[in-house]
């Protein structure tokens, strides 16, 4: 069984099948972001707005996303982002995916510097599961 919570987060990792059950055992909060309808930066930001339960005040840009993910007042100290339908998103919009991964990995490093943990977990069909 894949268990990313046993180690420090590192980049985008494959999600375990029962992510919420496994996360609960490690006291990790999980939120899902669905990439199924993402076609451009605007729909990407809407996916994060919905998945993270953000208000309409969310800036819908890279800096705002980074700030939301690294703000200790908005996220638990042990937090996982479940990236649903992520492999298809990466194939569909490779350039946008590279930009997003840069922001997510920077936020992950910033969280680690604060003594916090931010896991980036890609939920995929079994045949697509891998470590990025």
TrEMBL record:
**Which Gene3D superfamilies does the UniProt entry name for this protein?**
Barstar-like
The record's InterPro entries line, in alphabetical order, gives: Barstar (IPR000468), Barstar-like_sf (IPR035905)
The Barstar (barnase inhibitor) domain is annotated at 29-121
Q: Which Pfam families match?
A: Barstar
What domain of life?
Bacteria
**Family listed:** Belongs to the barstar family.
Name the UniProt record assigns to this protein: Barstar-like nuclease inhibitor
Originating organism: Deinococcus gobiensis (strain DSM 21396 / JCM 16679 / CGMCC 1.7299 / I-0)
């Amino acid at each position: 069984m894949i268990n990313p919570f046993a180690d420090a987060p590192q980049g985008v990792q494959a999600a375990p099948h029962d992510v919420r059950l496994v996360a609960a055992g490690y006291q990790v909060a999980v939120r899902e972001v669905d990439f199924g309808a993402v076609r451009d930066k605007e729909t990407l930001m809407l996916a994060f707005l919905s998945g993270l339960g953000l208000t309409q005040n969310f800036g819908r840009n890279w800096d705002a996303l980074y700030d939301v993910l690294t703000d200790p007042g908005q996220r638990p100290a042990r937090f996982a982002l479940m990236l649903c339908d992520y492999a298809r998103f990466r194939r569909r919009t490779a350039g946008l995916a590279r930009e997003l991964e840069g922001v997510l990995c920077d936020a992950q490093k910033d969280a680690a510097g604060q003594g916090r943990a931010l896991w980036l977990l890609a939920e995929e069909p079994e045949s697509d599961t891998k470590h990025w």
